[in-house]
Design brief:
- The complex is a heterodimer of chains A (220) and B (803).
- Chain A is of the alpha/beta class.
- Chain A has one domain: Rossmann fold, CATH 3.40.50.
- In chain A, helix 3 packs parallel to helix 5 (142-155), helix 4 runs antiparallel to helix 5 (142-155) and helix 5 packs parallel to helix 6.
- Chain A has a six-stranded mixed sheet with strand order 6-7-8-3-9-10, with helices on both faces. In chain A, strands 2-1-4-5 form a four-stranded antiparallel sheet, with helices on one face.
- The longest helix of chain A has 18 residues, at 172-189.
- Chain A has helices at 45-52, 75-84, 101-111, 117-126, 142-155, 172-189, 200-203, and strands at 3-14, 17-29, 34-39, 60-65, 68-69, 86-89, 160-164, 192-196, 208-213, 216-218.
- By secondary structure, chain B is of the alpha+beta class.
- Chain B contains 26 helices and 21 strands.
- In chain B, the strands form four sheets. Chain B has an eight-stranded mixed sheet with strand order 6-5-7-4-3-9-1-10.
- In chain B, strand 5 (137-139), helix 5 (141-147) and strand 6 form a beta-alpha-beta unit.
- The chains are: A alpha/beta (220), B alpha+beta (803).
- The A-B interface holds A 12, 41, 46, 50, 53, 55-57, 75-76, 79-84, 88, 90-92, 94-99, 103, 106-108, 110-112, 164-165, 168 and B 431-433, 435-436, 439-440, 442-443, 698-699, 701-703, 705-711, 792-793, 795-796, 798-802.
Chain lengths: 220, 803
């Protein structure tokens, strides 16, 4: 078992009062598996992803990655987790604007001390970025930026890829192409994939499916 | 519509109070330093005007000797009998309690109405007490307090006089000054009877001098006040950088609001009008606070400015401030003008913004990125023009324009220079985080460039002015050693006493050197004319700049004279050129010597020629050469033998210490303004970093998400601030050296008439670098701390969906 969530809850304080976003979510994912996380807007999908990534901590419950309860980890240990174990692909791409595509691709792998130039070069070729490596993010189209973001995550060969609506900003054709790439490369890298998506069509292409409704896991 | 749109626009500040505070603070500080300088200058100029108005010199014609010589008293009677309505005046210097005062003697009977002063008695009302023993003195209340009991006569306080001036009956003044039978000048009544004999017929050798539009002291101090104004303007400009940054951010944050308001039907002209009203409201609030703060700063600085003016020019300025409406009005006007200037670019952009503009992030930073190159080209052009002016242009105004171009050019070129340095750092970096650090710093540069430009100007001013002052001090100390060669300086109270002292010293000292002088006119300027004995002391020590061979032999033989550097430069004299002194004495210029701190010309002739041509010269002062170890003993012996007050027997060391004290106090004001300007630049950096902190999150959040601790990122942020400050400091050094060269080689020479060598003081730069780093640390600490403690929820918002 790579990932295990047990009765995870999360509440945010707002001006109008406490907002309970997750109300006891439990799920599990094995190594190499792919899972879609769906739900309507405000159901807590992104929050769940952020908790799994160690970007925030749940109020209650546990999150185990490779048998380790990450809710007990300190700030430094969580940073190590994000560098070496988990990789994030954002809807907004969130490339580093001051680095070119090549440097962006290699960035996380270099941070983790795992930079493999050959693997990165292969990723660049498979993602169709070979001709754009010296371009800066503002010089790339949305589709190209998303492919750089995917490449950046996979270059570090994380055990777990967390993708938050990675195709949300792309048209259908580009989105399908990006997902195909991500699935193939994740499989080649040996990474598990937990992907948030609104699209039931895309969700159907993954091995497992979890649906969130009002902060709880609902039947698919 | 304004009632709806203006509150909506102003509501932005309720949600961004820190931003508002930064904008108001920047404008307040900028206005404060400008207003402080204006208040000081205004106070000084009002004093000069009051001084000029004494005896109505600014409105009544005067009759003087063409050579600047004294006038025989009988001329007064001749003029009166020839139909001229004139009054005689005697002026000179009187020593009381070791201090020199300006003494004016007047004839209250013949004084014109315009020249009457507060306190001067009318006939039949205390008149007799003024014109007969024990006499009376009129003095400014400050002066009256100081001299009470020293004159042997009652002192009457008169606020129409300047500090340091005493007025008494002309007969009494003549006796005190040793000018019996002579007068200095005559003042004409405004209305003169027709048919009087021409002046040339009644009194040949005398000329009429029309009242000037500005007094001598006002002209002399023009350059000092121009310096202060330049400093004030620099501080204002630095403060405006804060305002510009805060205004720009506010405009960017409200860009979508403006678009929405226009889409809902608000005409563009109403929007612009509301924004201008907002700018004016902010400027009034900040301007009022700024002027009030400025008065506080001026009150603290004025005593040192007054000491400087007295030390440099002999100008008397009271130590207190008067609240002047003109200063308030000027402060508010410049605050409003500065705000509108900072806002104008954004107003134009808002006016031109299309209604349906696609969302583009950080538009104003992108505009900066595009303009960096254009800015650098403009900057380099200005530097080239400044270099050309340094070689070709002359005059004080040209000197300041050159400095202005130098500073502006360097500031404009700075962002590109920093960008290039950061690009090099990115290329050389190996580790990913280091690479990101350099690249991200370059990315952030447009947002910080204004603050860094302000820092550059402040640092360069500190280096430039500091180098100038230190060079001056180093040269001044060496010069003092040369000029103050005698071990003791003795001033007798009467000439008879002086002769007894000289006789006493004859066998007890190695040499007794007369230090006697008169005042006159040469080359159309007032000059001091000193006599010098033919003695080794002068040959070995006098600070000669340029001279003919055997200069001292020429002077001793009465075949030549020496002039000080100020007279030499101002009158463009040449060696060998003849100079006409009063009483027809004409001698060639045999040499030029340095004479720092003296605002007027000075001439040295042989002592024999001085006493021959000016027999009325006061022979009271001597320099005494003796072995240094014996000086104190001889000083005590003189005081015991002749009952001389302590201040009449002064050692070389005391005079040096006093002179250096005056020197140091002279530059206290510039040191204070330096520190204040650096403080404003620090606040500019702090304001920029704080307001940009929110905009950093999209750059920082992805790196954090990839596994770099927030604390690490915060330390990198802090390091980035320090690094940029250090790079700016490195750029400031050559700019500062260029400024000090300009001040020493051009401004000083044009303003004061003397040129100083440029010395470099790298330890001072190191001290300043530590200050700059500390300032950057202070500016960056809070934003970095804020980043390190950013809640994860705020960071994850960066990754939020936007549909």
């Amino acid at each position: 078992m790579l990932l295990k969530l047990n009765e995870v809850t999360k509440t945010f304080a707002t001006r109008e009062g406490p907002l309970e976003v997750l109300r006891g979510v439990s799920l599990s994912l094995n190594a190499g598996e792919t899972m879609a996380l769906t739900g309507e807007s405000g159901s807590g999908k992104s929050t769940l992803l952020h908790l799994v990534a160690g970007l925030d901590k749940p109020d209650n419950g546990s999150i185990e990655i490779d048998g380790q309860d990450i809710t007990r980890l300190g700030d430094g240990e969580l940073a190590v987790l994000r560098r070496e174990t988990v990789g994030l692909v954002f809807q907004q791409f969130n490339l580093i604007p001051s680095l070119d595509a090549e440097s962006n691709l290699a960035f996380q792998a270099r941070l983790a001390g795992r930079h493999d130039p050959q693997w990165t070069a292969r990723l660049a070729e498979l993602l169709g970025l070979k001709a754009y490596l010296k371009h800066y993010p503002e010089q790339l189209s949305g589709g190209q930026q998303q492919r750089v973001a995917i490449g950046r995550t996979l270059a570090a060969r994380p055990r777990l890829v967390l993708a938050d609506e990675p195709t949300g900003n792309l048209d259908e054709a580009a989105g399908d192409a990006a997902l195909d790439l991500m699935l193939a490369l994740a499989s080649e890298a040996g990474s598990a994939l937990l992907m948030v998506t609104h699209s039931s069509r895309l969700a159907a292409r993954l091995q497992c499916h979890v649906h969130l409704h009002a902060g709880r896991v609902a039947p698919c | 519509m304004l009632a709806v749109s203006l509150p909506a626009i102003l509501s932005h500040w309720r949600r961004h109070p820190i931003q508002l505070a930064m904008l108001l603070l920047g404008l307040c500080l900028a206005t404060a330093l400008w207003s402080a300088v204006q208040a000081i200058n205004g106070e000084a100029r009002a004093s000069y005007a009051r001084a000029a108005a004494v005896l109505a010199q600014d409105s009544l014609t005067q009759i003087v000797h063409a050579d600047g010589d004294l006038i025989d008293q009988t001329v007064f009677a001749r003029l009166r009998t020839s139909g001229w309505l004139v009054t005689p005046v005697v002026n000179g210097e009187l020593r009381l309690g070791g201090t020199r005062y300006r003494l004016i003697g007047v004839d209250p009977v013949s004084l014109p109405p315009e020249a009457r002063m507060i306190g001067l008695p009318e006939p039949g009302n205390g008149f007799t007490a003024f014109i007969s023993p024990p006499w009376q003195f009129l003095a400014h209340p400050e002066t009256a307090t100081r001299v009470t009991g020293l004159t042997g006569s009652p002192i009457v306080a008169s606020s129409s006089l300047m500090p340091g001036t005493l007025v008494t009956d002309i007969g009494h003044a003549q006796k005190l000054l040793g000018l019996e039978g002579s007068i200095s000048r005559l003042i004409e009544w405004k209305e003169q009877p027709a048919g009087r004999k021409p002046l040339a017929q009644v009194a040949p050798g005398l000329v009429e001098r029309a009242p000037g539009t500005s007094s001598d002291i006002s002209r002399l101090t023009d350059s000092f006040h121009l310096n202060l104004t330049a400093f004030g303007f620099l501080s204002f400009a630095v403060g405006l950088f804060i305002v510009h940054a805060a205004v720009g951010l506010a405009f960017e944050q409200r860009r979508i609001t403006f678009r929405t308001m226009r889409a809902l039907g608000l005409p563009a002209i109403h929007l612009i009008g509301a924004l201008m009203i907002e700018a004016l409201l902010l400027s009034v609030v900040a301007g009022l606070a700024g002027v009030a703060l400025g008065y506080g700063v001026a009150a603290v600085l004025l005593p040192d400015v007054a000491a400087t003016l007295k030390g440099l020019y002999g100008a008397e300025v009271p130590g207190g401030l008067t609240v002047r409406p003109a200063v308030w009005a000027a402060g508010l006007a410049i605050a409003a003008g500065g705000t509108l200037f900072s806002t104008s670019g954004y107003l134009v952009r808002t006016w031109q913004q299309p209604l349906m503009n696609a969302a583009r992030p950080l538009a104003w930073i992108e505009a900066h990125v595009r303009s960096i190159r254009y800015q650098a080209v403009a900057g380099i052009s200005m530097l080239v023009v400044a270099a050309a002016m340094a070689w070709l242009a002359t005059g004080l105004a040209a000197g300041f324009i050159m400095i202005g171009l130098l500073f502006l050019g360097a500031a404009f070129a700075l962002p590109l220079a920093l960008s290039s340095a950061l690009k090099l750092g990115t290329r050389l970096a190996r580790a990913p985080l280091t690479q990101w650090f350099w690249a991200d710093a370059r990315q952030q540069l447009p947002g910080l460039s204004l603050a860094l430009m302000a820092l550059l100007l402040a640092l360069a001013t500190n280096i430039g002015v500091g180098t100038m002052v230190s060079s001056f001090r180093q040269t001044f100390v060496g010069w003092l050693d040369q000029r103050l060669a005698s071990e003791l300086y003795v001033t007798a109270r009467t000439e008879a006493e002086a002769q007894r002292i000289a006789a006493f010293l004859k066998d007890r000292a190695d040499a007794v050197l007369p230090i006697w002088h008169v005042e006159g006119t040469a080359a159309g300027q007032p000059v001091e004319i000193y006599g010098v004995a033919d003695q080794r002391t002068y040959r070995d020590n006098w600070p000669i700049i340029e001279a003919v061979p055997g200069v001292w032999d020429e002077v001793a033989a009465g075949r030549g004279l020496l002039v000080n550097e100020q007279l030499w430069r101002r009158r463009r004299l040449a060696l060998g050129q003849s100079l006409l002194l009063p009483r027809g004495l004409s001698l060639p210029v045999a040499g030029v010597y340095s004479d720092y701190g003296n605002p007027i010309g000075q001439v040295i002739i042989s002592n024999d020629q001085l006493t021959d041509h000016f027999p009325e010269v006061q022979r009271l002062r001597y320099g005494v050469r003796i072995a240094p170890a014996l000086a104190d003993g001889l000083a005590d012996a003189l005081r015991d033998r002749f009952g001389l007050p302590r201040e009449n027997v002064v050692s070389q060391a005391s005079i040096k210490a006093f002179s250096l004290g005056v020197f140091d106090r002279t530059f206290t004001v510039t040191a204070a303004l330096n520190i204040l300007t650096l403080g404003v630049a620090t606040i500019a950096m702090f304001a920029n970093l704080l307001t940009l902190a929110n905009m950093r999150l999209p750059s920082v959040a992805p790196v954090w998400a990839m596994g770099v601790r927030l604390k690490t990122l915060a330390w990198l942020d802090l390091t980035r601030g320090l690094m940029l400050a250090v790079l700016t400091m490195v750029a400031a050094i050559p700019l500062g050296i260029a400024l000090s060269w300009a001040l020493l080689a051009i401004v000083n020479v044009e303003a004061f008439g003397w040129r100083l060598p440029l010395h470099l003081f790298p330890w001072d730069w190191l001290r300043l670098a530590i200050m700059a780093v500390t300032a950057a640390l202070a500016a960056a600490a809070l934003p970095s701390w804020s980043l390190a403690h950013t809640p994860p929820a705020r960071l994850t918002k960066v990754f939020a969906h936007e549909r």
